[in-house]
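Posting for a labmate who doesn't have an account.
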Amino acid sequence: MQNDYILGIESSCDDTSAAVICNGKVLSNVVANQEVHSKYGGVVPELASRAHQQNIVPVVQQAIEKAGIKKEDLSAVAFTRGPGLMGSLLVGTSFAKSLALGLNVPLIDVNHMQAHILAHFIVEEGSNIPPFPFICLTISGGHTQIVKVTDHFNMEILGETIDDAVGEAFDKSAKILGLPYPGGPYIDKYAQLGNPKAYPFTKPKVGDMDFSFSGLKTGILYFIQKQQRINPNFITENLNDICASIQYTIVEILMDKLKNAVKHTGIQHIAIAGGVSANSEIRRRLSTADKHFGWTTYIPKFEYTTDNAAMIAITGYLKYLNKEYADENISAKARLKVTE
């Protein structure tokens, strides 16, 4: 069997990542994080693109060396075309184009949101690959969607957020509580020590499979402000319970919408994808959904949940098999739907 080596390059936001996949198996997956944003409480686009420029050459070199191959062995170069921050995307796009041209190998553009879903198709020992059709809950800092996946590249959005993404709801709630950025993992950490029913927050009323988190964020802000007027030490004294209650409400919203999607489609194969799928409570609730609702659930490994190049490489490999190549005129797109 011929070995197809695909290099994946991911630069959609603030992580520079490169990975090499051989026939669907990950040989290397290198990620360089950008510490520069933590003091600003969020990603600064200009600083992100500059950091990508510094990181991309060493990260790609490391990925190729770790894979135990030479750059001349590569069969194709896959890169994130979008969605994401334009400056960040341009760095990865330009580099991928130059490398593919220099090596005279195919260039493959990848939709970042499709890649999150297709990370489930990475071949690993004991990996549980979902059969078609399946439903995927895609949850990240920038996206919250329920997607019906009929084939690798045949996807339909059943529902999505009408305002903020779920990752933003976690991070903004954490900011209200004075926790560092990114705040989602901190809420998860403290929530494990608290009572999830301590403070009931109102769940927004929107369509059956759509999401809304802006009202919830405002509700949490007003609640905290009111409690602090009564007791200035309210946050410090009740941090675990507050985090547990916020997390419980958000996960309840996600589970309610998934139940509606199953009812609507009759599909009981359920996958999760995206950075927020690293959250311990959503993972726990999904893993018990098998016995509660009769679903078969698919939960990715932690390293394939946040932005990483292995998911870009596997998507590139699937497109490579179909000979779906891009030409050198292709450009980055900051806005790109999962169906594009």
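Reply:
Got it, the structure tokens are right above this. Residues 234-265 form the longest helix (32 residues).
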